[in-house]
Amino acid sequence: MSLTLERDVDTHGGPTRDLKTRLRIIDCDIHPYLRTPRDLDPFLSARWRQHLAEYGKGTRGIYAARGTYPRFMPNTCRRDAWPAGGGLPGSDVDFIRSQHLDANDVEFGVLEPLLEGNAPRNVELQAALCSAFNDWQVTHFTDIEPRLRASILVPQDDAEAAVAEIERRAGDRRFAQIQLSSRTPEPLGRKRYWAIFAAAERVNLPIGLHVGGPSAAAPSASGWPSFYVEEHQVLSHSMPTQAASLILEGVFDRYPNLKIILIEGGFAWVPTLGWRLDANVAKMRSEVPNLKLKPSEYLRRNLWYATQPIEEPEYPQHLRTLFDWIGWDRIVYSSDYPHWDYDDPQRAIKIAMSEAERRAIFRHNAEQIYRFN
Amino acid sequence: MQRYVVASVAEIPPGTHKVFTVAGRPIGIFNLEGEYYGLLNRCPHQGGSLCDGLITGLAVGDRPGEFRMIRKGEMIRCPWHGWEFDIRTGQSWCEPAKIRARTYPTEITAGTEVVRGPYVAETVAVKVEEKYVVVEF
Lengths: 373, 137
Hints:
The complex is a heterodimer of chains A (about 375) and B (about 140).
Chain A: E1 25-30, H1 46-55, H2 93-101, E2 106-111, H3 123-142, E3 148-153, H4 159-169, E4 175-181, H5 194-203, E5 207-210, H6 228-234, H7 238-248, H8 251-254, E6 260-263, H9 269-283, H10 295-301, E7 303-306, H11 317-326, E8 331-332, H12 355-369
Parallel strand pairs in A: 1-2, 2-3, 3-4, 4-5, 5-6, 6-7, 7-8
Helix pairs in contact in A: 4-5, 9-10
Chain B: E1 3-8, E2 17-22, E3 25-32, E4 35-40, E5 54-60, E6 68-77, E7 84-86, E8 103-104, E9 106-110, H1 111-116, E10 131-136
Antiparallel strand pairs in B: 1-10, 2-3, 3-4, 4-8, 5-6, 6-7, 9-10
């Protein structure tokens, strides 16, 4: 009769933590949201505020003011991530702290705003919105919580304006990377994007290539999927497409120190892409004669792969095989907080790992590529 | 095994649930039409706070284009990845053979019994005229 019965009502606390050893982790994918659309206003000129009020964003998407597929969960978010004080998940820094940063001992978290800054067809509006979102990230997030680090959003359809935005932010240590979206109007290796890669290499910032983006094309290679579950799956196909384009167009020969993290695009495809490209390039060398390395060597030199959504093979040990094939030095942890397909750092990777392997994925690899200090 | 007095029945009306920390374990107590069920507030998939999920039913259909909702209020959908569990048994709808949410047997006990013991009820003020939800583990 000596046990105490506690009466705390635990509605938002999440699972209790049982860390084997404390490892302050780095999370490459946290999504911030606006508390209200008005939060962006102070960072937009009167001209663009008026433009948005009168004409809207005019994005490439097929609908004016909503996503193409109704989501499985409201705002694509965890149902337990809505702040008690109101606002969208990912909009309340205190709640991000308690529910994710503190609960999971996150030392640094990279913000990946998916707020359609780069979606308008009007490239001047793209530039204004991206710049406003960059100011908003530092004012509403990184200055309040220094564990959070911002991404430089760029109007990726207009390389000249994108480079100007990169140069404007590059000296600001609150920004850890440049963000691009994986669904682009043309494959990313094309020459129209090279100036962005040149700038990234010049200022020594990595590029976080996050799944999704402003393309008006169907997400699948064969048109429009019927279901959200199907679209959710085929979105990731943009990643091997972009990896192949970047390699075959010679981007990594031109910019050998370029670092690109592929975020939320899965990674089980990486070994097979390498095998096939190596075999095909060996046969058709004359079509891409300037490649200096085998395609799989660029996959291991210039690209990194974020873990979420973690691959969940029927036999968990097959995940170890995948990591062995891809390289333990290429994998970086990402949570996707506060989205519904969030991966818990303690539970998502269901294989036993050595201390060195855990450290590589949850911290060390990200430290090598991002700029945190 | 120990028996813990968690709450008076009046605290959890039919169709509602509440999470309590019982001897360090977060346990959701659900009232399904007067019957009480206990579920660990931790999803067996990735540890999400299961009891914060949507209470729902099962969408079934006999042929494409026809569907209906059955067993309304008897399933819970994890707020993270949407895994669904039978609140009564903890059985997973997606992987019934392999995955089960942790359940706790509950019973309703009269205040007159509770005061007699052996129950752990140090912070629940027990009144003899009330009935209480008791969890055993």
